[in-house]
């Protein structure tokens, strides 16, 4: 199988995903380091934020290196096994992030609406269990899609009109009837996208009804800042996911089919650490302390 890309300006265009990938990996790595080294960030909210940063970093590393190589030398081949692994890892990270965003909304709901029960409901054991459930659920879903897609018969051209191995592009190459499977994709998308989305909606409906009743102005501002950052990330991720997977039979143009996955694989991982750090005093405070320690070490 070969992965397609535009031939014009291939060198200059190929640099762009590399730069964005470096930014995404660097930003998320820094966020992970801050969460690990600063004791003030050892809370359930930042535990889940660390999981999100790790998912974004893995998602970027799964796709962008091969994508960059294809920009520079179009027509590169990828083995069926390599294609299947790329599909599995990409779907695992995407599905895990989708589920994790719902868990993060639940975390904020408990913290704001039931603060006295927060240490019990979001204990370390509970957080580990929720994170494990997210990873296992996403991996199981990804494995099902990967195995089925790679066992389809492919006839004629095996050029993938996408920057990486992606289910929708492979279905177009299959010479068998994939209508039933496309229906299954819609059903699974409803479960993986809409059920977590309903949890997020319900959580923030309760949160927004609770915030005006807070007596502390500082508490209101902190709650709104944290929630607005999370909702921004939710909008970026779910918007591209719904566009791409909820309507597989829609007559998207080839350009549209390429934009959405690149958006949540490259752009979203770049924006997530910026969104959470620039509007989060705790993260900014941890960053200042880390920079201060670094300067002290340099002076010594």
TrEMBL record:
Keywords: Cell membrane, G-protein coupled receptor, Membrane, Olfaction, Receptor, Sensory transduction, Transducer, Transmembrane, Transmembrane helix
Domain G-protein coupled receptors family 1 profile: 27-276
PROSITE patterns listed in its UniProt record: G_PROTEIN_RECEP_F1_1 (PS00237), G_PROTEIN_RECEP_F1_2 (PS50262)
GO CC annotation, single: plasma membrane
Domain of life per record: Eukaryota
GO molecular function, one term: G protein-coupled receptor activity
The keyword Protein biosynthesis is annotated on this UniProt entry: no
Regions that span the bilayer: 15-34, 84-106, 127-148, 183-202, 223-246, 258-278
Protein location: Cell membrane
Record's bilayer topology term: Multi-pass membrane protein
UniProt keyword annotation of Nucleotidyltransferase present: no
Main subcellular location of this protein, as a coarse class: membrane
Family listed: Belongs to the G-protein coupled receptor 1 family.
Protein name: Olfactory receptor
Organism per entry: Alligator sinensis
